[in-house]
Structures are given as C-alpha cells and as structure tokens.
Design goal:
The protein is α/β, with parallel strands linked by helices and 336 residues long. The protein has twelve helices and eleven strands. The strands form two sheets. It has a six-stranded mixed sheet, with helices on both faces.
Length: 336
C-alpha cells in the first residue's frame, strides 16, 4: 500500500466508525438517553396490588387524572390483588426498568413480608426502587361500648385485670391492623389473643358483638358502628391528632410516649429505572401532593398526604423495616 493512500483510508475508517456510532445511538433510542423531557412517550402502567375501589386504587386514580395533564399520557391502572400485596409488587419487580411500569406499594409487601415469609418471589430492597411516599393513614384503637374503659390507660388497666381473657381482632394476619395492636400490646404489657379476620367488615362486626374486645383499624371502617353506639374509639396511632378526629387523643399522649404506627403507601419502580425518570416522578407527584384539592380529597378519606424525595422514602422504609421486623420476630409471626 502506498503512503499516499493511507490518509484516505484513515478518513474512510473514521467516517465508517462515526456512522456506526450514530447508528448505534439511534438504535438505543430513548433507553440510552431517557431524560426527564423525553419521558413519557406512551401510557404509563401503574400496578395496584389491591382490588378496584380500595384506598390504594383511589389514590392512584386521583393522582393519575392530574398526572395525565402534566405528561400528556394516561396512567393505565392494573389491579393485581393477592398474596398480601406480593402478587402485584412482583409484577413491578420483574418489569422492564424503563419508567413505563410503576406500582403502589404499602407496608405489607415491602416492610413486613420479608420477616414473615420464608420465601418471596422478589426482594424489596434489591428489586424495587422507592420513588415517593404518597400517603399514610393511622389506625384507631376501638373497643366495644360494653367495655368499661373510657380512656386508653383505663383500657390497659382493665385488660390486665382480665388475666389473659382479652382477645383482639385484626383485618388479617400480618396486616398493619395486626402488627399495630401487637406493638401496643407489647408496649403496654398486657396479654391478649389475636383473632384474625378477612377484612374490616367481619373484624368490626366481631367487635360490635363483643366477641373480641379490641381492634386497631382505619377509622372510616368503624365510624358507622361508633355512630350506632356499639363501638367507641380510645386513641389514634399517629404521632399527632388527625384533623378528622380532633377530639381523639393519640396513643403517645395517652401515656405511651413515642408510640406511632401508620399504614403507608408510595410509588415504586423496578430497580434500574433511569435516575432522570425517578426525578421527574418525584417532582411531579410532590407538586400534586401540595395541591389543595388533592389534600382535601385525601383528608376526606382519613389519609395524610406524603411527599419528599426518593432518598427520604428509602430511608423511611429502612427504618420501618427495622422497627416492624423486631416486633414480628418477638411475636413469632409467620405466614408460611
């Protein structure tokens, strides 16, 4: 080969490599350059691990209506109830990490399940990426109207006098209702037998009939029984009093300092979802959680709006996992 032809060959090779690089970049498309401005370019699927009409479903649909206006793309809600929420969260954990599949997770399949199940189809800390806390909701401690106690300290004193004959209902084994009451029982130091039910209606009915003597559950499910004079509230499990039940003291202010037990939920993405997409989600959802109309809608359902960064949500989940994991181990709670 002559020396005069080498520059032309180098130029041709250079142009060829440049062409190949450009072709590769085009082929990678949005996956390689998934910026906040580029996403979303098609509908976003949100998996709800609970039935249609549930509080999780309502939260997603309320936020989805407003996110559609911001994104120009709809949210497609896919209800996947089952296995205590794990069925739906497994779908999210195994989805492509491209920002087009999200899920709304809650205490059960995120913070409780790893301590109650020997085997899980996914690992929350490894396979799911926390994006933003959406809402939280306290339970209330309710007792039958026939129980003589009018305050929480009076109830504890009464329960201790029953010498282990007290039973408490929950809306399901391993639920927030179950674990919040177990935490309180351990904190207050009285004996009680756990009686799990399949949901709020039968648990509330057992309480109203006096078959069980206590129940921690969300207030809306119990309000009709309170209004009928069959059940009474003694305390709320949040750190501060809630707007919808201002007259009801917290467990903490009733003599059990530091007590807090909330049912919480938030948006999750598959691990590996681009940072730019997570930041966009974080920014847009936080803006909606400050919208007065959204806040009012949540308050009507007894929900406390969340918010904050993905890092803060991750840290909160880690703290909740440590707290409830210790309680589950002490109580020897196992689902399988």
């Amino acid at each position: 080969m002559s020396l005069r032809r080498r520059p032309l060959l180098h130029l041709a090779l250079g142009l060829g490599l440049h062409s190949l690089a450009a072709t590769a970049a085009l082929a990678a498309g949005p996956a390689a350059a998934q910026g906040a401005d580029a996403w979303p370019q098609r509908p976003v699927r949100v998996v709800v691990p609970a039935p249609a009409g549930s509080s999780l479903d309502v939260i997603v649909r309320l936020l989805g209506e407003r996110l559609k206006e911001r994104w120009g793309q709809p949210l497609v809600v896919e209800n996947k109830p089952g296995a205590g929420g794990m069925l739906g969260m497994d779908v999210v954990a195994k989805a492509a990490p491209d920002g087009y599949t999200l899920g709304i997770g809650f205490n059960g399949p995120i913070a409780f399940a790893p301590f109650m199940y020997r085997k899980m189809p996914y690992q929350p800390a490894r396979d799911l990426l926390p994006v933003v806390l959406t809402t939280s909701q306290p339970n209330v401690l309710a007792v039958p109207a026939s129980v003589p106690a009018q305050t929480l300290p009076e109830f504890v004193a009464w329960a201790k006098q029953q010498a282990g004959k007290v039973s408490y209902a929950s809306v399901g084994n391993g639920s927030s209702s179950h674990l919040a009451m177990e935490l309180f029982r351990q904190t207050a130091g009285f004996e009680a037998v756990h009686v799990p039910y399949n949901g709020s209606p039968p648990a509330a009915a057992s309480l109203a009939a006096g078959e069980t003597q206590a129940l921690m559950a969300v207030a809306p499910a119990l309000l009709p029984l309170v209004q009928a004079g069959k059940v009474k509230f003694l305390a709320v499990t949040s750190a501060q009093r809630v707007d919808s039940l201002k007259a009801l003291p917290t467990v903490a202010e009733s003599g059990f300092a530091g007590f807090e037990a909330l049912a919480w939920n938030g948006l999750f993405a598959p691990a590996g979802t681009p940072d730019a997409v997570v930041r966009r989600l974080e920014t847009d959802v936080n803006a909606l959680l400050k919208d007065p109309a959204v806040i009012e809608s949540f308050h009507r359902q007894g929900l406390i709006p969340g918010g904050g960064s993905a890092a803060q949500f991750k840290a909160y989940i880690e703290a909740e996992s440590a707290k409830w994991g210790a309680i589950i181990r002490r109580a020897q709670i196992s689902i399988d």
